[in-house]
């Protein structure tokens, strides 16, 4: 029988290190031992001396060495040493073999290859091959047959084996007991934790989201994994914790406890996108090792804790997107303050309710700040002179506050500054001279009260400038042609000033230049025939001349959808799968990137997107995260630059929990910089497809060796229970295979008694009425499938939505949706006519609405024009439809995708709310909100959703507010990369009263007519789009306010009677229609655009 051999080496300090064990005869090479006490590992490392282990040493836990040395001492009499190894004979050889096999299993579990012990995969090479393992069990069987010899072992050996078996269990259970207790407490109080959080050894069993150093839990990273819970104090017992990232788990809520101060070793704290509220505990200032804090996108309130000033190691401080109030804390003789954070590089405090003045003490020349971001607060007073001392600054944002006074002249000392945002304040005095700031890319000082002046010469001196926004800053005189010669210039906005004279762009402007000069006094344009730029001169005298160029005297709209697209041709994916840029179908991890700053405005320049996607991919790959590709889409500027990000997995069709947590940590920690893009935060959508844990259980291996028979019995029991469960599931599946059987439609009419008028159409009926679903009958397509026009019962025109394979629901879900739709009966809601569920098809049959969508009408595509009174009527119709869904439907319904393309106009231009494929029952949740992965439309989405991941009736109110702004302006929700809400806010200015509306009002509304009620209409729309859902009105209140606006309009008595609450159901005579197209017009059903030819 082969002998067992262990190769070993002894260090200069006398510690023996076992570095290879084999169950065969070998010659042990002589390793060169080196000692490497890694911080906190408590291990020693020996160089392998073998080619397959050239990456680094093998790390062996010290407890293993203890019992190996003990065995060696106990059997010293039988040992003979040869070539640096040792062999044994007789019964002791069998004992040694058992111990070494168990030891090898432990080494397989505990040994790391390479220098990054805590990051790399645990030893990928088995120390024993399968054949060698079988050989061992054969020898083990032989040793059992030789039981007599075993029973003759001395009492010392029997005692030793007992000690060894106990020690083996102790070695395997390596997690510190206090950490284990804390994690078990979390298991008891939190939901949706990873499924492999089982057993009694988080470190040894590699629980998802847990990393350990030696026996201590040092990181807890569960970003974006959907965990839920209110109790946070248990984490405070993990006193060895260094990294804590629980970001993007909207189900984590409650108050952050003061016991967080127990985490004295914490260096990184990330809680972005959760639901924490209440004050930030003052105890956070006791975490002296903290380098990175991000509590972005929660609901923290109260003041900024002054104790944060004690965190002398802090580099990144992000408290944005909360409800913090009070003043900015600075140090006094007795209290710390933010001015003490001399190592800090990031101050992010945007979108809070901070008030008071900015202390001059806040900044000093000793600071290393790179980003200072305080936009969208309630700060008052002057911009501090001390800001000019921090010459490391790259981005400064104080826009959307109430600052006043002159801008400090020493701001020009910030020669490293790339981006300066000071817009929408009350600054006065002269426009500051920024000469010498040659690194500036982006300058926005619009909407301030500077002294009237000519165009500053320094505009033309900033050679790196890409964006210059100086609208409403009292500029006057002629625009120097030199401005347009700047080589990097992409956007110039000088609207709402008093610029005059002849405009000369010159010939040296960049090819992608956009110039907005609306509402000035420019009298002429030195026009050249080959101009290739986007220029807007609306509101200037030059546009009133006979020779005015219509191209420049109308508002031009630029698409933001020119992002790089894949070249996969016609390919389809399964349910919930998405086609990646590399033409693979998989389940991407999705969310929104919000950039605090950015140095460009040309949304059509694909170079920026390639740089961003390339930087993200390089970061994922260098971190070992299995990412195949990324996709960026839907760019939007609304305070910040936003992108929808899709991250596609490689090798598999979905990510596991570890990859999701690692991606979340990388995107939140941001250890990389991206050219042209500033700092950002990432809000994800809950990942749909987290698989269960697939990691093997080493505990099971050891227990299997010891108690194999017991496991066999358990397997038999489990198999029997599983068979019973499968039998029940099969029986239930048979019962549910046809959930429609109980409806029993009438044979003649197809009517279903349970559906209050909706009919069951056969597949053949719908096939016939659509001419076999021919393309000539296809009137639209979308994510749900195609929409066909047809005629049923000889006379009724319908729209038939035919689901494609990827969007089909289960039978029960489809039945539930039909029951819901069939109960909706309101004149301002599109009605369900019937459905079809047979031959593998799912189809919904709706009434056909002939005049298309409100969006098409406002854009001029439909061929109809709506005057102001008709727009008020459309607003009231749509509001009544939504109010019915919210308040009168049983159960109440949240639409989830309110937009102008889902408001349809019938023959009399009455509005109907459409498209309930995305609607959800509110009553079924019992919570008053829905937590879900939203499929809504960018530009209409409730901003509070990005923080709460919860949809309420107020989410529909926000979307409807955007529709009201569309009715007034005829603009798309996102235009030129800017959100319509922001456009209206800028037009209203700091007075919050309607003014400067000439630049945004729909030019097709007759300028000579008085738009009665416009001011109240705007105030109503802006109340609907308030940031906080609690501040928005209910839809019933919106209905009443629109009725009041209509009553205030000076209509004649007949019209007034029609618009009154009591008689509004009367049909209104069709108002004059103005055709925009002679031959045809585009309309759509729901959200599916299609084209109809005039007959």
UniProtKB/TrEMBL annotation:
Q: Which Pfam families match?
A: LRR_1 (PF00560), PK_Tyr_Ser-Thr (PF07714)
Record-annotated Protein kinase domain positions: 773-1046
Question: So which residues are the signal peptide here?
Answer: none
This protein's source sits in the domain of life called Eukaryota
Indicate where this protein is primarily found.
membrane
Give this protein's Gene Ontology molecular function annotations. ATP binding; protein serine/threonine kinase activity
> What parts of the sequence cross the membrane?
157-176, 699-723
Membrane-related topology note:
Single-pass type I membrane protein
EC number(s) on record?
2.7.11.1
- Alphabetically ordered keywords of this record: ATP-binding, Glycoprotein, Kinase, Leucine-rich repeat, Membrane, Nucleotide-binding, Receptor, Repeat, Serine/threonine-protein kinase, Signal, Transferase, Transmembrane, Transmembrane helix
Put simply, this protein is called non-specific serine/threonine protein kinase
């Amino acid at each position: 029988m082969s002998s067992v051999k262990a190769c070993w080496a002894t260090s200069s300090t006398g510690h023996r290190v076992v570095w290879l064990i084999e169950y065969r005869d070998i010659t042990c090479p002589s390793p060169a031992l080196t000692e490497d006490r890694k911080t906190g590992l408590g291990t020693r490392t020996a160089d392998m001396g073998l080619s397959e282990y050239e990456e680094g040493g093998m790390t062996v836990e010290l407890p293993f060495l203890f019992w190996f040395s003990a065995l060696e001492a106990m059997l010293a009499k039988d040992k003979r040493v040869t070539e640096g190894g040792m062999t044994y004979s007789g019964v002791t050889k069998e004992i040694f073999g058992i111990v070494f096999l168990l030891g090898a299993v432990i080494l397989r579990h505990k040994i790391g290859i390479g220098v990054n012990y805590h990051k790399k995969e645990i030893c990928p090479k088995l120390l024993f091959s399968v054949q060698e393992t079988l050989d061992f069990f054969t020898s083990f069987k032989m040793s059992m047959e030789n039981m007599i010899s075993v029973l003759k072992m001395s009492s010392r050996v029997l005692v030793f084996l007992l000690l060894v078996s106990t020690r083996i269990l102790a070695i395997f259970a390596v997690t510190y007991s206090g950490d284990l207790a804390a994690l078990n407490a979390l298991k008891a109080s939190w939901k949706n934790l990873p499924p492999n959080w089982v057993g009694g050894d988080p470190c040894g069993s590699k629980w998802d989201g847990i990393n350990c150093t030696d026996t201590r839990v040092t990181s807890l990273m569960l970003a974006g994994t959907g965990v839920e819970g209110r109790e946070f104090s248990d984490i405070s017992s993990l006193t060895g914790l260094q990294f804590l990232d629980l970001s993007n788990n909207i189900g984590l809520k409650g108050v952050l406890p003061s016991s967080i101060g127990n985490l004295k070793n914490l260096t990184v704290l990330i809680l972005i996108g959760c639901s924490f509220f209440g004050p930030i505990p003052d105890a956070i200032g006791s975490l002296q090792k903290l380098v990175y804090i991000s509590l972005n996108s929660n609901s923290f309130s109260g003041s900024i804790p002054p104790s944060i000033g004690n965190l002398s190691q802090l580099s990144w401080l992000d408290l944005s997107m909360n409800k913090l109030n009070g003043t900015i804390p600075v140090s006094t003789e007795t209290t710390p303050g933010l001015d003490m954070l001399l190592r800090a590089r990031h101050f992010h405090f945007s979108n809070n309710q901070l008030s008071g003045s900015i202390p001059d003490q806040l900044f000093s020349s000793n600071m290393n700040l790179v980003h200072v971001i305080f936009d969208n607060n309630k700060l008052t007073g002057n911009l501090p002179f001390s800001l000019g001392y921090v010459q490391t600054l790259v981005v400064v944002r104080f826009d959307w506050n109430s600052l006043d006074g002159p801008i400090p002249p020493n701001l020009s000392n910030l020669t490293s500054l790339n981006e300066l945002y000071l817009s929408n304040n009350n600054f006065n005095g002269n426009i500051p001279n920024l000469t010498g700031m040659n690194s500036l890319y982006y300058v926005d000082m619009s909407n301030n009260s500077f002294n009237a002046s000519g165009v500053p010469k320094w505009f033309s001196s900033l050679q790196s400038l890409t964006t210059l926004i100086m609208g409403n800053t009292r500029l006057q005189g002629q625009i120097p042609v030199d401005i347009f010669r700047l080589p990097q210039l992409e956007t110039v906005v000088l609207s709402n000033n008093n610029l005059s004279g002849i405009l000369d762009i010159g010939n040296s402007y960049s090819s992608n230049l956009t110039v907005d000069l609306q509402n000035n006094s420019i009298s002429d344009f030195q026009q050249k025939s080959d101009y290739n730029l986007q220029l807007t001169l609306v509101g200037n005298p030059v546009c009133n001349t006979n020779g005015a160029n219509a191209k420049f005297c109308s508002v031009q709209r630029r698409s933001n959808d020119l992002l790089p697209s894949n070249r996969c041709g016609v390919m389809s994916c399964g349910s919930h799968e998405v086609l990646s840029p590399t033409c693979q179908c998989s389940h991407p991890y999705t969310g929104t990137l919000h950039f605090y700053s950015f140095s460009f405005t040309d949304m059509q320049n694909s170079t920026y997107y390639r740089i961003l996607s390339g930087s993200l991919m390089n970061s994922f790959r260098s971190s070992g995260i299995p990412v195949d590709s990324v996709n960026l889409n839907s760019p939007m500027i609304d305070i910040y630059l936003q992108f929808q990000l899709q991250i596609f997995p490689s090798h598999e069709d979905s990510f596991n929990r570890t990859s999701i947590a690692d991606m979340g940590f990388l995107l939140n920690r941001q250890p990389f910089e991206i050219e042209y893009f500033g700092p950002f935060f990432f809000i994800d959508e809950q990942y749909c497809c987290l698989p269960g844990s697939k990691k093997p259980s080493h505990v099971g291996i050891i227990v299997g060796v010891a108690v194999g028979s017991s496991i066999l019995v358990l397997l038999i029991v489990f198999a029997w229970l599983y068979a019973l469960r499968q039998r029940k599931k099969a029986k239930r599946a048979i019962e549910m295979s046809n959930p429609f059987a109980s409806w029993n439609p009438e044979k003649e009419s197809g009517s279903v008694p349970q559906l209050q008028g909706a009919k069951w159409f056969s597949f053949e009926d719908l096939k016939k009425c659509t001419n076999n679903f021919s393309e000539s009958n296809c009137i639209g397509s979308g994510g749900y499938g195609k929409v066909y026009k047809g005629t049923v019962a000889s006379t009724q025109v319908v729209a038939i939505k035919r689901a494609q394979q990827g969007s089909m629901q289960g039978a029960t879900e489809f039945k539930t949706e039909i029951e819901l739709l069939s109960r909706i009966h309101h004149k301002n809601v599109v009605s369900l006519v019937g459905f079809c569920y047979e031959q593998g098809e799912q189809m919904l049959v709706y009434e056909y609405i002939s005049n298309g969508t409100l969006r098409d009408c406002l854009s001029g595509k439909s061929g109809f024009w709506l005057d102001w009174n008709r727009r008020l009527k459309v607003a009231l119709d749509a509001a009544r439809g939504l109010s019915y869904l919210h308040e009168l439907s049983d159960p109440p319904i949240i639409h989830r995708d309110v937009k102008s393309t889902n408001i349809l106009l019938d023959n009399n231009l009455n509005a109907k709310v459409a498209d309930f494929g995305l609607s959800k029952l509110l009553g079924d949740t019992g919570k008053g909100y829905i937590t879900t992965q939203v499929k809504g439309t960018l530009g209409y989405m409730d901003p509070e959703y990005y923080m709460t991941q919860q949809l309420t009736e107020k989410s529909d109110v926000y979307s409807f507010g955007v529709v009201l702004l569309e009715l007034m302006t005829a603009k798309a929700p996102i235009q030129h990369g800017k959100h319509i809400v922001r456009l209206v806010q800028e037009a209203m200015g700091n007075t919050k009263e309607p003014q400067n509306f000439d630049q945004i009002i729909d030019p097709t509304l007759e300028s000579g007519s008085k738009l009665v009620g416009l001011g109240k209409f705007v105030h109503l729309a802006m109340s609907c789009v308030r940031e906080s859902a609690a501040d928005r009105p209910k839809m019933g209140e919106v209905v009443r306010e629109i009725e009041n606006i209509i009553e205030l309009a000076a209509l004649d008595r007949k019209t007034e009677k029609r618009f009154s609450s009591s008689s509004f159901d009367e049909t209104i005579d069709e108002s004059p229609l103005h055709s925009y197209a002679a031959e045809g017009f585009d309309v759509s059903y729901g959200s599916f655009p299609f084209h109809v030819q005039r007959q």
